[in-house]
Amino acid sequence: MTDTKNFITDCIKAHIEVLGPVATLAIARKITSLKIADNGDVLAVAGDANGAAEELKNAYFSFAGEAAQAIMRTLAQKHPPLP
């Protein structure tokens, strides 16, 4: 699994813990290039994975604001910057 795909999976799973699975997965599944399992695992990324990650982050920021930003700060400590 690529670093970006791992990041996206971790991002989704972290949001599930805070926002719950229904909202989190609904938001993630709006990103048409992502195929997401019910547990939050990324099954496939079509096209630009970095673009999909950015689109997902923006969607969570738009929906959850400060909570999403706090989650992203925590993930940034775990994952090195993506290219």
Please describe what this structure looks like:
The chain has 83 residues and is mainly alpha-helical. It is 65% helix and 8% strand. It has 4 helices and 2 strands. It has a two-stranded antiparallel ribbon. The radius of gyration is 11 Å and the shape is globular. The mean pLDDT is 88.
Structural descriptors:
83 residues, mainly alpha, two-stranded antiparallel sheet
Concise synopsis of the structure shown:
With 83 residues, the chain is mainly alpha-helical. It has helices at residues 3-19, 21-28, 49-64, 66-78; strands at residues 34-36, 42-45. Helix 1 runs antiparallel to helix 2, helix 1 (3-19) packs parallel to helix 3 (49-64) and helix 3 packs antiparallel against helix 4.
Q: What would the principal axes of the Cα set say about the shape?
A: globular
Q: How many domains, in number, for the residues? A: 1
Number of strands: 2
Tally of helical segments: 4
Uncertain stretches: none
> Main sheet, how many strands, which sense, barrel?
2 strands, antiparallel
Spatial strand arrangement across the major sheet: 1-2
Order of helices and strands: HHEEHH
Mean pLDDT: 88
What helical percentage do the residues reach?
Answer: 55-70%
What is the radius of gyration?
11 Å
**Percent of residues in beta strands?**
5-15%
Q: Termini distance?
A: 16 Å
Q: Report the structural category.
A: mainly alpha
Q: What order do the helices and strands come in, and which of them pair?
A:
Elements lengths: L2 H17 L1 H8 L5 E3 L5 E4 L3 H16 L1 H13 L5
Antiparallel strand pairs: 1-2
Helix pairs in contact: 1-2, 1-3, 1-4, 3-4
